[in-house]
Amino acid sequence: METILPILYLVASITFIVGLKMLGSPKTARQGNLIAAFGMVLAIAGTIFLYRGPTGEGLHNIPFILGAVVVGTVIGWMMAMKVKMTAMPQMVSFFNGMGGACAALISLMEYRAQSGAPMGLGHGLATIAGLLIGSISFSGSIIAFGKLEERIKDIRFTGQQFINNATLVAALAIGGLIVAGQLSGFEIVVGLAILSLIFGVLFVLPIGGADMPVVISLLNSFTGVAAACGGFLYGNMVMLIGGILVGSAGTLLTVVMCKAMNRSLLNVLIGNFQGSGATGAAAGATGAIREVSATDAAVLMAYAKQVVIVPGYGLAVAQAQHVCHQLEHELEAKGVIVKYAIHPVAGRMPGHMNVLLAEADVSYDKLVEMEEINPEFPTTDVVLVVGANDVVNPAAKTDPQSPIYGMPVLDVELSKQVIVMKRSMKAGYAGIDNELFYRPNTSMLFGDAKKSLSSLVSEVKAL
Amino acid sequence: MDSSTLQIIYLVILMIFLGVELIGHVPSVLHTPLMSGANAIHGVVIIGSIIVMGEATDMLSMILGFLAVIMGTLNVVGGFVVTNRMLEMFRKKH
Q1: Which pLDDT score, from 0 to 100, does residue B81 have?
Q2: Which of A57, A64, A250, A314 has its CA 20 to 30 A from that of A25?
Q3: A268 contact partners, CB below 8 Å, separation of at least 6
């Protein structure tokens, strides 16, 4: 009997490793996810029914545990099934926060159960680290969720960096004293949890919404580490392996995302999307803009040889991916070559735009990545920018003052004609103006992306 | 430092390298599903919450444990289901 559970844990650990590996390739990704999920079910069911504590006793409260699992399953399943594809990043952030909270609660209860008895160094360290990291991950993820939902604004004030650092140092110091046995008591540990929660909020608040994916990815790896702390606490190998794997893979993913924006992680975390650069760029980009009607735009596109569509988050919010696919269809019926230029951070997360367009049945081979499409722009007749802004801002290449300077962008301005669909002249997510809109070969088509696209569809059809 | 702690440190270091190795060359198209999948995997933290809940004796521990198990389940179930939904979109074409 006693050997069954460790074997289940071993199998689960292998499914996590294999699953994560398979998630890295488009062909096997879905299977990889299912394999990891299967391993997780084994590990959970095994723990509930086969776990024996150090004294050889099984777990109590099994009905309550099962009840909680059922409640969590129903809510989690419903939330995950109902969420719109556009809101996927914040959903991931929310679930990540739940994992962090779970890790923090484990530490809290573990400390309480051990109260009185002195903790060993390893045990104490794992308890306090799990509490700290789990709490930061929880509150940080919830703030990131709120930001992506656009319910929470970026908040910056002078001395913020100092307050953040002071909070973190205080939390680390209290944590260190608890581990060293200088401080003790459940109230103090609860206080530490609250301080960590506050730090999580302060840490994410000043970071711009455009950088949220990086933050979510980072908090994701935090939760991994918090889970591993729990694993150390119980000498539980599957928690340890799963947690550390996610911790390290998540950290690498975070760095890769930063690289896609040509920024360092530190630069993202300190929140450099602020200050004089933004205003300087805004002042530089002025001039006349040209508006174009849907009819004229339709003519331009229908008689072009090649049209490249640049989808951005604006397309996603307007739920316009299906109409966009229709336009592509109509243009192709007129003999136009249509391609989609996908910037690595288009949408709200890397790969988010691919998911959205795939949802609308856009063929995978029409989605061209930035490095491949950039040389094609000079020979492209019309570029249609749908709700994208920062990823087509030439200031990233030309203006060292610009906050996005150095970020690789799509060279749309090299094409013969650029049509930008936008709701208004409002600045992009990074909050900076875009000189592309004032270029002589750019015209603007104002309005909701979905409405504009459907009028384009009917205009093209009528030609 | 006893040998079991040392073994755990070895394991942690190996897993760090494995994690980096596993996702080193992933196309950016898959970053979102990958992050989401990894998110579901760290839901394994639920096992810890099941253990504390199973060893809880008083009311406060029961309540905290119950909450922890619910949150852990949300992480696991939500994480895997969301990832699966994203990846289903890719599958339709092939």
Answers
A1: 96
A2: A314
A3: A207, A211, A214, A215, A258, A261
Tens of pLDDT along B14-32?
999 999 988 877 877 788 8
Task: Tell whether the torsion through CA atoms of A363, A369, A370 and A372 is positive or negative.
Answer: negative
Query: What Cα–Cα distance (Å) separates residue A262 from each residue in A65, A66, A340, A409?
Result: 46, 47, 22, 10
Whether A390 is catalytic: yes
ipTM of predicted complex:
0.94
Helices (H), A261-384: 265-270, 276-284, 294-302, 313-317, 321-333, 352-359, 370-373
**A383-408: string of b/e by CB count within 10 Å (b at 16+)?**
bbbbbbbbbbbbbbbebeebbbbebb
CB–CB of B74 and A98 under 8 A? Answer: yes
Who has greater pLDDT, B73 or A316? B73
Q: Could you tell me the residue ranges of all domains in chain B?
A: 27-91
Q: Which of A370, A106, A333 is nearest to A233 (CA)?
A: A106
Given CA atoms B15, A344, A287, A315 in this order, what sign does their dihedral have?
negative
* Test mutation, A62, A98, A361, chain B, max B CBs within 10 A: A98
Q: What pLDDT, in 10s, does the model give residues A233-271? A: 988 999 999 999 999 999 998 988 888 777 788 878 876
pLDDT at position A448 is 86
Q: How many residues belong to chain A? A: 463
A228 touches chain B (CB under 8 A): yes
Task: Give the model confidence (pLDDT) of A154-203 as tens digits.
Answer: 777 888 888 999 999 999 999 999 998 888 889 999 999 999 999 999 99
End-to-end CA distance of chain A: 75
Long-range contacts of A78-83 (CB under 8 A, 24+ apart): A79/B74, A79/B78, A80/B77, A80/B78, A80/B79, A80/B81, A80/B82, A80/B85, A81/B81, A81/B85, A83/B82
**Dist. CA A365–CA A362, nearest whole Å:** 9
Which residues does chain A have within 8 Å of residue B60's beta carbon, measured at their own beta carbons? 112
**Cα distance between residue A308 and residue A385, in whole Å:** 8
Size of interface A-B (CB pairs under 8 A): 371
Please identify which of the residues A390, A399, A411, A433 carries the catalytic annotation: A390
Q: Give tens-digit pLDDT for A53-63.
A: 888 888 999 99
Which pLDDT belongs to residue A431?
63
Identity of residue A53: G
